[in-house]
Amino acid sequence: MRNNIVHIGAGELTYEIRAIVAIAEKLNKLGIKTNMENIGDPIAKGEKIPVWMKKIVADLAMKDCSYGYCATKGLLETREFIANVTNSRGKTQITAEDIIFFNGLGDAIQKVYGFLRREARVIGPSPTYSTHSSGEAAHAGQRPVTYRLDPDNNWYPDLDDLRLSVKYNPAISGILIINPDNPTGAVYPERILREIVAIAKEYDLFIICDEIYHNLVYNGESTKPISDLIGEVPAIAMKGISKEVPWPGARCGWIEVYNADRDPMFKRYIQSILDSKMVEVCSTTLPQKAIPPILSHPEYPKFLEERKARYERHSNIAYDILKEVPGIRVNRTNGAFYMSVAFKPDQLTERQSLPIANPEVRELVEGLVNQPGVSLDKRFVYYLLASTGICVVPLSSFCTPEMGFRITLLELNEKEFTSIFKTIAEKIMEYLNS
Fold it and tell me: What is the pLDDT of residues 329-338, one digit of tens each?
């Protein structure tokens, strides 16, 4: 073309969670029945929405007001409801004016990073959820800046690494926390969150805390919302209904802004995010209307507890199976519905493989794994998919040097779930010994 029209950060926009679906579809056509354990969609894995919840949505769909625009920040009555919920359990008090709705957290993430000054960097965890790392890197046109999560310490943040990274990189302006964490399933204790807040305060940074899974914590663990701990530090909490209700297809998430008035630069930054939303007009009305009646329904707490109990059972089944496998590091999932498994150093090579009976499938996979730049854990993921039909995501695609894979805990059938993890355990040992 006459001019280069490609954004400087275009090369940073990757999302292996869905990219691997294209490979699975090719294998489907070649006769491989796939088990999609790659994406955190409870509905796709068969979770049933209760009738009372469907009735709330159906009744709203019969009202004309559900089909119109709402205020740019979101429906006032819904923002007031959310503010009351946050204020009832947090020390930091907010109003409806501190809440902005988006078309899912993916939309919020792109705007939160996209309206930062290009030179301003947000340091995020490694591994981290791809939408965050891609969004931050794309805005800067550079690789993500990260702090390490330690697979030998429950995937908790390496606070020394975080502090040194902040100290010696003056471009860092914010810290990203994902709690409970995706992709690792870690739940951060209060002491870790307090230390991160202290680092932000010491170096005059703001915090982004993705709390989309905040109410999906189990195995006796507990954590705090960032609103409880933030003090005077400017911060953004990201929340939504896609995982908890669960209603991922609603594309309905929001941010809560804390302490905007304490820093004029942060306040102007938040205003730029709101201005961008105003240009877009608003977010989808119907799911916003559904939030108060769903979350305040008398059946909702029981429904949520039943889901958490199932994830807890599955987390322990998966951990008990995989902890006996040599060559890997695995932690018990305590929140959200993911597990990240890391291979120990020097366990993976370019010579390892798994047997594939179908010659067409074998040819396809060998073509994929022999491409330049294919990571060692992606090799394993491709061979696992071709030989068993189990589709997971390479851990290295979550912005980390760790080699491994992420898998969901969403399979409803406990017998099938157990079989999947036993198969994975067997295939890991077979692969490492090939």
Answer: 999 999 999 9
